[in-house]
Amino acid sequence: MRKDWAHRMRELLAPGGILVCLEFPLYKDLKAQGPPWGLRGVHWNLLAVSGDGILDDPGEEMEDAQGSFERISYFRPARSYESGRGTDMMSVWRMRSRHIKS
């Protein structure tokens, strides 16, 4: 359902809008049972690469990714869930200009 989520985010985001994601749990292995499922690299794959979000390895985040979204900010939140504190991240995304609907 991850790819469906990314597609829906593209549909819902207004032109010029931003998408803010709390990425958790990042501490959990991608192959571990869930929920919650490990998400390290998943948002990058879905949004920056337009992949399917099904990863065995988080891979490398590359500046020249050509997906529907570009990440404009990435930071550790001041507050998060106890279990993920110190590993969770906030990401802020916008549509790449070629994907903005008129």
TrEMBL record:
Annotated InterPro entries: SAM-dependent_MTases_sf (IPR029063)
Source taxon at top rank: Eukaryota
Protein name: Uncharacterized protein
Species name: Paecilomyces lecythidis
Lineage: Eukaryota, Fungi, Dikarya, Ascomycota, Pezizomycotina
